[in-house]
Amino acid sequence: MTKTSAGEEIAAPDSSLSAASGDPFKGDPNFMASLARGLEVIQAFTPQRRLMSISQISQKTGIPRAAVRRCLYTLNKLGFVYAQDGKNFELRPRILTLAHAYLGATPLAKATQPVLKHISQLLNESCSIATLDGDNILYIARASAERIMTIDLNIGSRLPAFATSMGRVLLSHLPLDKREDYLQRITLMRYTQYTIGSVDKLRDELDRVRTQGYAINDQELEIGLRSIAVPISSVNGGVTAALNVGVQAGHVPLNELTERILPILLEGAQELSLLTH
Fold first, then answer.
1. For residue 126, what are the β-bridge partners?
2. At which of 94, 125, 156 does a domain end?
3. Can you point out the beta strands (E) in 52-197?
4. Lowest mean pLDDT among 8-22, 91-105, 233-247
């Protein structure tokens, strides 16, 4: 998996609303296609592709070039994007205001940073919290010790749920009917030679994760990356988010994930559950 291909495929919207997707909302009088297109254009930008032309966005989203141009014109006038050379657009800091209301009002996101920082310093590893967002996970908090992935992860980053430890924790706690719906519609992309390649194997893995209370991902998303994740429970006993630690496979043996890191993660998840009750 190369940086560019991995970044673009991972960051692509999980349930595209573009014309290429077959327009699942066609005929819905309350659905604003122009707003949906604008949001798709915003989501086309990734850490790996900070600068994008109209043609590149059109190709990625399936939205016609003329519509992309109008979206970018509007977003530029509103201060969300700009193009220094008039051709290649990039997001402006104002885009953060779209997420601020959610992150600022979410108790979990507000309470997590001190706990994440403590875990990161204790283990000298990066740790994160994510929620399920469609077929992806969405990072809502992160404390980094050092960069261990070629993908630049930050708050707001998205990764495919099936190929991540946090995603598998969250998927394993879905109601059975919703989990089965997910398994029936998902396309399993092989990111490395270790990525789970069949729905039956993924279903078995999710059952195992639910039973044992944690998920391990051993180089399935990126060679050299291992991670372990545990659930964070809500006041009603449901699972609202997942907490993980990522390590370099060459530095941390697989058994250390459960023997050294898991107890600290479980303690942190319990503390976070209490903070958000």
1. 246
2. 94
3. 81-82, 90-91, 126-133, 136-143, 158-160
4. 8-22
What is the distance between the alpha carbons of residues 120 and 26, in angstroms, rounded to a whole number?
Answer: 47
Model confidence pLDDT, tens digit, residues 185-205:
998 999 999 999 999 999 999
In sequence order, what DSSP letters do the residues of 127-196 get, joined into one string? EEEEEEETTEEEEEEEE-SS--SSS---TT-EEEGGGSHHHHHHHHTS-HHHHHHHHHH-----SSTTS-
For residue 145, pLDDT beyond 80? no
pLDDT band at 130 (very low <50, low <70, confident <90, very high): very high
In degrees rounded to 5, what are phi and psi of residue 148? -120, -5
Do 45 and 123 share a structural domain? no
Place of tokens 């601020």: 100
Q: Helix 107-123 crosses helix 262-275 at what angle (to 10 degrees)?
A: 160
Rounded to whole angstroms, how far apart are CA atoms 254 and 225? Answer: 11
Q: Which residues span the domain enclosing 215?
A: 106-275
Residues 69 and 182 placed together within one structural domain of the fold = no
Band (pLDDT 50/70/90 cuts) for residue 108 is low
Q: Tokens 């967002």 belong to which residue?
A: 133
Distances from the Cα of 206 to the Cαs of 134, 217, 248, in angstroms? 17, 12, 24
More confident residue, 93 or 189: 189
Dihedral, CA of residue 157, residue 233, residue 209 and residue 161, to nearest 10: -20
CB 188 within 8 A of CB 264: no
Instruction: Specify if 101 maps to a domain.
Output: no
**DSSP structural state of residue 163:** G
Each residue of 21-30: pLDDT tens digit? 455 667 788 8
In the structure encoding, which two tokens stand for residue 162, read together? 């099936």
